[in-house]
Amino acid sequence: MNQDRPRTAMSRRRLLAATAAGLGAATVGLAFGTGTATAASLKNGLWCNPAQGYFPSGGHFGADRGGVPHAGQDITGPAGTAIYAARGGTVHAAGENVLSGRTGYGIVLAHGSGSYTYYGHLNALHVSTGESVGAGAWIGDMGSTGNSTGPHLHFEVHSGGLGAITDPVPFMRNRGVDLGGGWPTLNPGASGETVKVIQRLLTSRGADLVIDGDFGTVTTDAVAAFQSDQGLVADGQVGPKTWPKLVRTIDSDSSPGDAVKAAQTALNKHSAGLVVDGDFGSVTRAAVETFQSVNQLVVDGECGPKTWEVLTA
């Protein structure tokens, strides 16, 4: 088994003060069941999709597996598809048969407060026990090790200590992530690298923002102004209707600027290790092509809508 880490050769519009204040007051939900976070506030930018693929028949949470309920959600794809950390945390365990009752190579990530995610049937690991990882870090490759009938990711969420499993599909959806694929949803109050991507894309369209990863009132106003300009509901939420209009298709012929920086920021969230300089040169193009390859996309070195969708998921 290869344990080596992979290498990668608006205008502004004034809104009603009451609306802006209401949107900006959204609070960031905590990771698991602490406090009184609403479903909306849980879409806080701290979660991302662990793998691209589709749900196979019988691979859902609770499915009968010889009298034993299935403990997670299966996501099927070709062997070698990249597996990403669903949230930042520490590698609790990485190796073979790391969780009782699960076979094959897997990874357990600890996210604090007794919360964990598990990634099973991998054919390669890119992290080691004790290592800290960010949300979206490339932690392994999809495989079929252990008791498996074909390449897939077996993904679990444990929300009250190891063994306290919950259905990962609604859990992740409540946090703005559709398992398997699709644009993410982030609400005002969110934070993190994907918020920086949003800010850079807005800046590329004329907004005047500090790139700080804080989805506060200023960023909320900029999102709502952009949405209004595009004929969308100006709710300040960046989701499946806003993302396709916000992203820009960029490639090696693109002029240096914030749109390229947005792509570089998103690639770095997935372990590309790029200098965020806004230059779509050969190194950035190679990182795009690597990302496309390990996510089963057309490898053309161009950041178009489909590549952006996977980059931000």
From TrEMBL:
<dbReference type="GO" id="GO:0004222">
    <property type="term" value="F:metalloendopeptidase activity"/>
</dbReference>
<dbReference type="Pfam" id="PF01471">
    <property type="entry name" value="PG_binding_1"/>
</dbReference>
<dbReference type="InterPro" id="IPR036365">
    <property type="entry name" value="PGBD-like_sf"/>
</dbReference>
<protein>
    <submittedName>
        <fullName>Murein DD-endopeptidase MepM/ murein hydrolase activator NlpD</fullName>
    </submittedName>
</protein>
<dbReference type="Pfam" id="PF01551">
    <property type="entry name" value="Peptidase_M23"/>
</dbReference>
<keyword id="KW-0378">Hydrolase</keyword>
<dbReference type="InterPro" id="IPR011055">
    <property type="entry name" value="Dup_hybrid_motif"/>
</dbReference>
<feature type="domain" description="Peptidoglycan binding-like">
    <location>
        <begin position="257"/>
        <end position="311"/>
    </location>
</feature>
<dbReference type="InterPro" id="IPR006311">
    <property type="entry name" value="TAT_signal"/>
</dbReference>
<dbReference type="InterPro" id="IPR016047">
    <property type="entry name" value="M23ase_b-sheet_dom"/>
</dbReference>
<feature type="domain" description="M23ase beta-sheet core">
    <location>
        <begin position="69"/>
        <end position="161"/>
    </location>
</feature>
<dbReference type="InterPro" id="IPR050570">
    <property type="entry name" value="Cell_wall_metabolism_enzyme"/>
</dbReference>
<feature type="signal peptide">
    <location>
        <begin position="1"/>
        <end position="39"/>
    </location>
</feature>
<dbReference type="InterPro" id="IPR036366">
    <property type="entry name" value="PGBDSf"/>
</dbReference>
<feature type="domain" description="Peptidoglycan binding-like">
    <location>
        <begin position="191"/>
        <end position="245"/>
    </location>
</feature>
<keyword id="KW-0732">Signal</keyword>
<dbReference type="InterPro" id="IPR002477">
    <property type="entry name" value="Peptidoglycan-bd-like"/>
</dbReference>
